Amino acid sequence: MITHPAVLGWLIQHFHLYLLRNITVRATLAAVTAFALSLLLGPLMIRWLQSRQIRERVEKKDSARLTEIHAPKGGTPTQGGLLIVLVMMVSLFLFGRLDNLFVLVAFLVILGSTLIGWVDDHIKLTGQVRKGLSKSEKLGLQFLLYGVAAVGLWYAQEPGTPPAISLPFVKRSLAPGMFLYCAWGAFVMALASNAVNLTDGLDGLAAGCSAMTGLALSIVAYAAGHAGLSRYLLIPSVPGCGELAVLGGALVGASLGFLWFNCHPAEVFMGNTGSVVLGGVIGYMAFAARQEMALLLLGAVFMVEVASVVLQVASFRIFGRRILRIAPIHHHFEFGGWKEEKVTVRFWILSAILAILLVLTLKIR
């Protein structure tokens, strides 16, 4: 079986690199390639962003204290998420099967999410009044994009095996119609995209957590696409989904490579251009593998970030008081006296523990 007629197929045929037919080998190579390209292209990307004057503007009118704490970040190049997108796409192109619909839809998710994040950043960085896309504009574009992606996943299923939605805590699934399936998929992907976007508030926080989440999802996707493993682990079998392990590998390598430059003190920020993409890909992988409910455990750090904002706003509007010092919750801990590095590393630890728990509990969920 030729994996990629233009690149991998040629290597297999002329150099007898038959290991490249193995998904786990290609996922590993995608991670290594994405990481290496990040280290190679990172300095060039940072210089290019600096030359274009694409820099962070620290003008947080909602909190004078937060503005003061993050004042040193002003002028740091942003929209570095373009580097994440570039190395992810190159790695997926080189090592993914381009005759696999799951992979093709992944390219749509990456490109569409990049465009939404870039427009959001562009408006925020160049506008004098608006801080980016409005919530309704952003959600509308995301639901449109991810709804189309869900349609692609609907047709990616093998004939005679209609898509299903996995129910939490039980080994059963719901077989919905196309509209409900696509609406649910759009919601899951939009939720994950915005959750990672909200988490991206401290140096290295979103990149580090995304790397660990992506690694666990790679294992889940591989198991879901492997008939024997899915049967043994009692998880839904999704033929062809195993190829998304390569996407997960690319995500892990890109996140770690970007973290090389984004760790405190950050040389570059990913901006919405990167965080919207990382979240979109995480949501896409979970939904495609029919493990969207696993995000409640695996992505608990991201979900708590979202919940902290929702509860803060609801509490203030209903009771006239805030339940946190400030939202999202990572800033709450900053205001409590934790140094930025301490918040970030502790959230990384939680993400790592959650990733391990997800893998360990696959068979018993």
What can you see in these coordinates?
The structure is a single chain. With 365 residues, the protein is mainly alpha-helical. It has one domain (25-294). It contains 15 helices and 2 strands. A two-stranded antiparallel ribbon has the order 1-2. Helix 2 runs antiparallel to helix 4 and helix 8 (205-225) packs antiparallel against helix 10 (244-262). The longest helix has 29 residues, at 23-51. The chain is globular. The relative contact order is 0.15. The model has no long low-confidence stretch (mean pLDDT 89).
Q: What are its keywords?
A:
365 residues; mainly alpha; two-stranded antiparallel ribbon; 15 helices
What can be said about this structure in brief?
The chain contains 15 helices and two strands. The chain has helices at 8-15, 23-51, 64-69, 81-95, 101-126, 135-156, 178-199, 205-225, 227-233, 244-262, 271-288, 295-298, 300-319, 329-335, 340-360, and strands spanning 165-166, 173-174. The longest helix has 29 residues, at 23-51.
Question: Which sheet architecture does the biggest sheet show?
Answer: 2 strands, antiparallel
Strand order of the largest sheet: 1-2
Helix content: 55-70%
> How far do the termini sit from each other?
34 Å
Strand-residue fraction?
A: under 5%
Low-pLDDT segments: none
What integer is the average pLDDT?
89
Helix and strand sequence: HHHHHHEEHHHHHHHHH
Q: What is the overall silhouette? A: globular
Q: How many β-strand stretches?
A: 2
Helix/strand structural class = mainly alpha
The number of distinct structural domains comes to 1
**Contiguous helical run count:** 15
Cα-based radius of gyration, to the nearest Å: 20 Å
